[in-house]
Every structure is written in C-alpha cells, then in structure tokens.
Design a protein that fits this description.
Order of helices and strands: HEEEHEEHEHHHHEEHH
CATH architecture of the largest domain: Alpha-Beta Complex
Strand order of the largest sheet: 1-2-6-4-5-3
Number of strands: 8
Largest sheet: 6 strands, mixed
Number of helices: 9
CATH topology of the largest domain: Conserved hypothetical protein from pyrococcus furiosus pfu- 392566-001, ParB domain
C-alpha cells in the first residue's frame, strides 16, 4: 500500500488593496467674475417672464458654480409656489418648530428651490418652509429658480446632509452654551431656550465630552475581541432577544431614534410612558 499522500493546506492569502485617495478634480465651472447673468440671457429672460406673470420680481441671476447653468433668484407671492405632489408628507410638528425657530432668529434665510409649473411654480424640497411661511403670515417667499424641470426628480439625492443624532446635538448645544457664556456673560439660560431646544442637551453634552459613548452594559450582551458590542443577547433557544435596557439605554436609543421632526427623545421618555 502506498503511503497516504499528504495534502498541503493552502493558506488563504488576502490581498491588501489600498484605495487611492481621490484628489481634487480638475477646475471647472465659471470664474467668480463670470458668474453674473443679465436679463438679456435667453434662459433668464424666459424665467423672468414667468416670475412677472406670477406677480413676483427678479432679484438677480447667475451661473451655477458647477455646470454654469443659469439660475434666477426671485421673490414670489407665497400663493404662487406649491410643493411637488410627490414630495414627502407634511409633518405639522416639524413645520411648527421651523416656524418657531424662524420667528426666534428674526429672519427667513433659506430660499426654496422652484421650477415653473402650469399654475405657477413647484418646489421639490420646500414643503415645510412653505408651511412655516404660511404659518408666519409671510406675503412672499424667496425662491431659487431653474428651468430644468427634471431637477424635481433628482433633488432627493442632494439631501445628503448627516442628520444630528442625540450625541451630535448635545455636543453642539454645550459648545454653543460656552461660547454664549463668553460673549454674553449677563444672559440667562432661558434667554437661549430656543437655541438650546432642551436643557437635557446641556447635561448630555457634558457627559459626551467626558466619554464619547456612555451607557451601562446590557446583561447578556457579548463583546468580540475587537471591542465591538453585540447588543442583542442570545437566549436559551438560540434566538436573539430584546436587550433589557439599563438606566442609560434610553439615551443611547435616542442617538439613532430621533424622529423625523428633528426632536431627540428625552432620556426619561421611557419612564414617562
């Protein structure tokens, strides 16, 4: 009998792939001094005509810094601008909070994006600002106009700003409070109630500064060697069950569970329910 052949075990070699860091792209778009447009431009003239038909006024026109396409800044009667019918549903809570914030700041800053429609203008991303403007009793609204009707279907991809979770919001509030304490030392906390939103953010901000992630470990949770936590314990049946929350779990949940109105849950919401 021939001796058994030894099978060589091949070790799986993982090839390291280093991603190339993307450098800045080649310069593009108009120079700063080339951005201004006049009413003589055919695209501007067409948009200006629609603005005047809606009893609005053109405030200015320029070429966008990326592709150099014409954009018109205009003041339009509030009733001439409607949200696109396929836009997300109105949150009355969010609209109310936005109206309160605008009233507290004392000015309406952000123009809505708008495209011409049969009845007037459609705004693909301004439903809550339009609702807040109506609630505040504004007669007109500032709009950034484009004649690119397809933008109404592409603008959702531009909403890539990271939403504030509880940690980010709390840290921003405590930093803002310290800055205000230096600039306005005689002011009281109640003077900045709208800016701080909730006194809990001041306390949580201090805690997050001391420890980036703070919570009591959950019973049954497992840790891997890398230190990442497995938040759901394995039950006797082998299935993953719900974590039994500790005293600080509502805070951790609030980091990712801030509702779509922008309100971060209070740490004691669970106890009040």
């Amino acid at each position: 009998m021939s001796p058994a052949k030894k099978t060589a075990t091949k070790k799986a070699t993982t090839r390291k792939t280093t991603r190339r860091k993307r450098g800045p792209a080649e310069p593009r778009g108009p120079e700063a001094r080339e951005a201004e447009l006049t009413r003589e431009d055919e695209h501007v003239a067409a948009l200006a005509e629609k603005v005047e038909k809606a009893k609005g006024t053109v405030l200015g026109a320029y070429r966008d810094p990326y592709a150099g396409l014409p954009l018109v800044l205009a003041s339009l009667p509030l009733g001439a601008v409607d949200a696109t019918p396929f836009q997300r549903d109105l949150s009355r809570t969010h609209a109310q909070r936005l109206a309160d914030a605008i009233g507290a700041s004392g000015l309406f800053l952000d123009p809505v994006i708008a495209i011409p429609s049969r009845e007037g203008f459609w705004s693909p991303n301004g439903r809550h600002r339009l609702a807040a403007a109506k609630q505040l009793g504004l007669r007109a609204i500032t709009a950034l106009l484009t004649d690119d009707a397809g933008l109404a279907y592409r603008i959702l991809a531009l909403n890539t700003e990271k939403a504030h979770n509880l940690r980010d919001r709390a840290l921003e509030v405590i930093r803002m409070a310290r800055s205000l304490a230096k600039e306005q030392p005689r002011s009281k906390e109640k003077d900045h109630a709208t800016s701080f939103e909730s006194p809990a953010f001041l306390t949580l901000g201090c805690a997050y500064e001391k420890r980036d992630r703070f919570r009591r470990p959950c019973s049954g949770a497992r840790e891997d060697p890398a230190g990442a936590r497995d938040e759901k314990p394995v039950l006797a049946s082998g299935r993953r069950g719900a974590v039994q929350p500790g005293p600080l779990d509502p805070v951790e949940e609030g980091r990712e569970a801030a509702d779509d109105h922008g309100r971060a849950p209070h740490p004691h919401d669970r106890e009040r329910a």
